[in-house]
Amino acid sequence: MEEIEIIDESVLVVPDDKEHTFDEQMAIECVKKIKNPFRMLTVETVMKDLNICRSIAYKLFKSEDFPSKKIGKNHQISLIAYLMWKVKKS
Predict the structure, then answer these.
(1) What is the pLDDT of residue 28?
(2) How does pLDDT run across 35-90, given as a tens digit for each residue?
(3) Does 10 lie in the same domain as 48?
(4) pLDDT of residue 40
(5) Euclidean distance between the first and the last CA atom of the chain, given in angstroms as a whole number
(6) What does the angle CA 34 – CA 15 – CA 25 come to, to the nearest 5 degrees?
(7) Which residue of 16, 68, 76, 84 has the smallest Cβ count within 10 Å?
(8) Taking residues 11-18, what's their average pLDDT?
């Protein structure tokens, strides 16, 4: 896998010494357009986006295939990880 350099949390630089597949190029272009793709989302944010109840959202955050982290008592997921998970599931 190719190294992605983080200049500041809102700018990504992907080395161009390799040709990318169409899907990879689309993903790179989409990430470049997101303001701060590494910001953390809460259970409530995901709950509203997926239109699910709180208990289902917590079950999702605890599931094996959902890339979330527990920070203190709070479950969170980075925006980029959440978007990649949604694409994978659709």
Answers:
(1) 80
(2) 888 999 999 999 999 999 999 999 999 999 999 999 999 999 999 999 989 988 88
(3) no
(4) 95
(5) 23
(6) 50
(7) 16
(8) 58
Q: How far is Cα 65 from Cα 31, in angstroms, rounded to an integer?
A: 21
**Six-digit token pair at 17?**
């010494």
List of residues 6+ apart from 71 with CB closer than 8 A: 40
Residue 51: what pLDDT? 96
Provide the domain limits for residue 80: 40-89
Cα–Cα distances in angstroms (integers) from residue 86 to residues 19, 22, 67, 73, 81, in the given order: 25, 18, 11, 24, 9
What pLDDT is recorded for position 14? 57
Contact 34, 79 (CB under 8 A): yes
Hey, what amino acid is at 24?
A: E
Please tell me whether residues 64 and 78 are part of one structural domain. Answer: yes
